[in-house]
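From the shared-data thread, chain only:
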Amino acid sequence: MKFQLLTIFPEFFESPLSTSILGRAQEKELVEYALVDIREFATDRHRKTDDLPYGGGAGMLMKPEPLVGALEYAREQDPGATRILMSPQGEPLTQALAQELADQPGGLILTCGRYEGVDERVREGWIDREISLGDYVLSGGEPGALVLLDAITRLIPGVLGNFDSIREESFSAPSLEYPQYTRPRDFRGREVPEILLSGDHAKIAQWRRDRALERTRKRRPDLLDPKA
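Structure, as tokens:
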């Protein structure tokens, strides 16, 4: 899958994209990352990407010319790509949405807004979907784009060595993940639950389901079907 990241701060992504799972995914040629500097498409000698909003108001808005120029360039590189704007007004990012995007045949163009947002005409004519990380505001779309990219990349077949680890994670099912333990068996008086040492896989699986449900009811009851 090809990811194109449209931003006025390409340096924001350089280290994360070469590190850990994201870096290994690229080394395996399972994904391709491309950074597109929106400033390169500015139409004035100062490479200006923002201007005052019509009608007044606080802050600045991203100008349409450089942003649309970058979007059109990215679409030329990957004609079937979905154009996404990271925005607090977008649909919330969920595990199901990450899986949907990971399964689609085309690439993704992740557009990082800045300032007080983007000219509405860009949304209307050059964006396919808007995605939000939650009900809060960041300094720009870069952190959100990186989170979205990470959530999708790890779902691409071959990126993670153990596929079962994806299926058992929180939010892959409508519940949180069960508690997990590793060595040592006793850490400062806190012992691993005896059932996990029993070797009885059926009982262990049932214990994990019960603990996952218990944890979800306590911490995230909104994830559960009220009729269950």
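Residues 17 and 23 are 6 Å apart (CA to CA).
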